[in-house]
Structures are given as C-alpha cells and as structure tokens.
C-alpha cells in the first residue's frame, strides 16, 4: 500500500479551490471562531459566522473522500 502525505498550510478559501474533489482523507483546521481571536484572525461576528463558513464547508466536503474525516482544533498561543 502506498501512502502519500501532502500538507497544505494557508487560507482554506484559497487552497481548496485548487484541490480535486474526493481526494482528501483528513482535514484538520483551526477556523477563526466567532468573535474570538480578534487580534490574530480579525474575528467573525457571531451573526455572520454561518454565512462566512458555509462556502468554505462546501469546499471541504467537495474535496473530502466519502470515507474521509474532518476536524477542527483550537490553537492556543
């Protein structure tokens, strides 16, 4: 069995558009949580968060294999 490992680091809204669909086994991300980490990420107002995240989540689902896994983490500095 051949295992390929590619790590992409950057803004998901930029990176995901260049990845073909159904080819990713694992996505781990640390999105800017609503109204948190304003100094680091700029923050997303709670009432705008879903509107902001839906287009990104659509792309996450597009590239993720049916057997793939998606998870989020909170980075603490």
Describe what is shown at a glance.
The chain is α+β, with helices and mostly antiparallel strands and 77 residues long. 30% of the residues lie in helices and 19% in strands.
Output the strand order for the largest sheet: 1-2
What best-fitting shape do the alpha-carbon axes yield? Answer: elongated
Question: Radius of gyration, rounded?
Answer: 14 Å
What is the H-and-E element order?
A: HEHHE
Mean pLDDT: 82
Overall number of strands:
2
* Count of folded domains: 1
List descriptors.
77 residues; alpha+beta; two-stranded parallel sheet
How would you explain this protein's 3D organization?
This protein has 77 residues and is an alpha+beta fold. The protein has one domain (12-72). The protein has helices at 12-15, 38-41, 49-63, and strands at 24-29, 64-72. Strands 1-2 form a two-stranded parallel ribbon. The longest helix is centred in the C-terminal third of the chain and has 15 residues, at 49-63. The chain is elongated and about 45 Å long. The mean pLDDT is 82.
């Amino acid at each position: 069995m051949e295992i390929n490992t590619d790590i992409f680091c950057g803004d998901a809204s930029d990176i995901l558009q260049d990845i073909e669909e159904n080819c990713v086994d694992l996505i781990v991300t640390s999105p800017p949580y609503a109204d948190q980490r304003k100094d680091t990420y700029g923050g997303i107002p709670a009432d705008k968060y879903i509107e902001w995240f839906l287009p990104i989540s659509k792309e996450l689902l597009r590239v993720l294999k049916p057997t793939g896994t998606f998870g989020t983490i909170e980075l603490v500095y």
